[in-house]
Amino acid sequence: MALQIGEVAKRSSVNKDTIRYYERLGLIPEPTRTNAGYRTYTEESLNV
């Protein structure tokens, strides 16, 4: 199941900017992108 950044932020109780920051630091893997450029995360990729 693909999750967008807003859903990831809600489930983890942090804001979207924090998710992006964690990506830049390499704490979470870089997500795949839709054709429109939206980030999509899998639950497996977030269990790090």
UniProtKB/TrEMBL annotation:
Can you say what this protein is called? MerR family regulatory protein
The major lineage groups are: Bacteria, Bacillati, Bacillota, Bacilli, Bacillales
Record-linked InterPro entries: DNA-bd_dom_put_sf, MerR-type_HTH_dom, MerR_fam
Q: Does the keyword Iron apply?
A: no
Keyword annotations for this protein, in alphabetical order, are:
DNA-binding
The answer on whether this UniProt entry bears the keyword DNA-binding reads yes
The protein's organism comes out as Gracilibacillus orientalis
- Give the superkingdom in one word: Bacteria
Pfam families documented for this protein? MerR (PF00376)
